[in-house]
Fold:
Amino acid sequence: MIIRPFSEEFDDIKVSEGVFLEDDRGFLKKTIFGDDLIRLMGEVNEVICSTSRKNVIRGMHFQVPPFGVNKFIKCISGEIIDVFIDLRSESKSFGKVGSMNLKQEDNYSLFIPEGFGHGYLALKDTSTVVYLQSKKFSKEHDFTINPFSIDFDWSVENSIISEKDKSGINFSEFNSIF
Structure:
């Protein structure tokens, strides 16, 4: 398994390239394991599986301290554009956005640490994402930035988005506590 920084600009975001085995029965993906999992996540309190139709945008979600979460994201069917924004006010990349395509056919996963907003766009008729979270969900610490208020071209017409996400905080009005 290989774990590397996403980029120089986003060195806290990690890309994990796991093990992929395929034979006539199907395939097995071992995305992260052992000390690497513990080193990145600390602990895992939730495993979430989310299936979305094509053109669904989910995000940009985050939890504030003391319930800030690390996330480890893997697309297990279909394809998504995974999107993150740095919400850490003292960071050199504050307010900057990054993205990566994740799909069923690849070996890649993304680690997104506390202090980042996270979301994705489903690109296939059905796309399923599994992600690990380091802390449990806390409604009072859970927030959303409107995905259309960040510096990212979603490149989709007729997007499907929840009312919660549509009515999220505009990034220009966001006051970080990270």
